[in-house]
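Sequence in, structure out. Go.
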Amino acid sequence: MNRSVIALAALGAIGIAALSSIFIVDERERVLVLQFGEIVQERSEPGIGFKMPFLQDVVRYDDRILALPTQPLEVTMADDRRLVVDAFVRWRITDLRRFRSAVGGGGEEFARQRIDGIVNTALQATLGRVTSTELLSEGRTALMNSIRDEARLEAASLGVDLIDVRLTRTDQPEQNVEATFARMRAEREREAADEIARGKEAAQRVTATADRTVVELTSDARRQSSVIRGEADAERNAIYAEAFGQDPEFFAFTRSLTSYETALQGSNSSIVMQPDSDFFQYLRSYDIPVAPGPAAE
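Output:
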C-alpha cells in the first residue's frame, strides 16, 4: 500500500510539473519566459508554449495598440501666452526585450508614466516655439505630428512606438480665464452702453422731429382755420350787407329779434332801462303795453 501511495504521489507531482511547464499565448499578447530575472524565451505567436516548471516564470504583455491620456500641462507659447494642454497618445510595444529591460518589473504601468513624461517634454519643446495663434489654426495637425516625431525618438529607447499624438485640450489657466471673462464682460458692457446712448440719441432725434412736425402741422392748421374763418366772416358780412341793402327795415327788425332772444334767455332774466329806449323800438311799434313809471322791468 505504501508503494501505491508513493506511486500516486509521484504521478501527481509529475502531473503538476507537466501542467506547470505549459503556458498558452493569446493572440492579443506577447510573452517572455524568465529564469532568475533573465529572458530565456520570447513568444509572440499564439498557441501553447513550454517552460521549465518552478524555475521559469511567464510574463505577459499586451500586443495591441494602447491608449494613454496625458496629464494636463501648462505651456508658455512663443507669444508669452500660457495655455493648459493635454494629449491623447496611442502606443504599442514593438521590442519586447528592450521594453522589459527599460521598465523591469514595473510593466505597462511604469511604461505609461515614462511615456507621459516623454510626451509632456515634447509638448513643451514644440509648443514653446510657436504662437498660440498657430496652435489654434489649421497648422495644428502639423504641430501634433511634430510632437509625435520628437517624442517617438525618445520612446524608442523603451521598446515602444508612438503611433499617434493628438491634442485634446488647449485652454487658458483658470486665473487667465477669469481675467479674460472679466475683460470680455467689460467690453460687452461698454458696447451695450454705447448702443444705449446711440438709441437714446436716435430717440431724441425722432422725438424732436415729431414735436417739430406737430408744431408745424398745428400752426398750418391754425393758419388755414384763420383763413377759412376770415373768408367765412367776409362772406357772412357780404350776405348781411346785401340783405341790408335790399330791405334795411326788415334787416333791423330781425337783428332786434335776435337781440331780444339773446338778452332774455332763462327763466329769471331781467333788464332795467328807459321805456322809450331804442331797444324796445319794435315792441312799441306793435303797441305792446309797458308799465308806467320811471323804469320798467
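Check: Strands lie at 22-25, 29-35, 38-43, 47-50, 56-62, 66-69, 73-76, 82-93, 160-171. The first strand starts at residue 22 and ends at 25.
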